[in-house]
Amino acid sequence: MHVSKVTGFQQFTSSALASVSYVSSALLLDAQGNKANAAFLTVGASTASCGIRFRDDGTAPSTTVGHFLPYGVYPFLYQGDLQKIAFIASVGNPDLNITYVQVQD
Fold it and tell me: Which of 31, 45, 83, 97 has the fewest CB neighbours in a 10 Å radius?
């Protein structure tokens, strides 16, 4: 598998992640109409003891329920329905950086 195109970038600050956040549909397409089918997720922060939770089943995550992605895991490749993924801060004050990409086998 390899990345063939980058279609967009989005950053969620810790204040945005205080409540459930969703990806921007507009960022899934680049100017040429190429649609993302995967995303690289990275968690940044001013301290190492932080992380986010995400769910991709159409149900909102909570601070204790969902897949945990801690600070320092770099990068995490997510392949799934980008329209259903949702994020929330779980521990500390994390920022979330998302690079939307097209991947091919």
Answer: 31
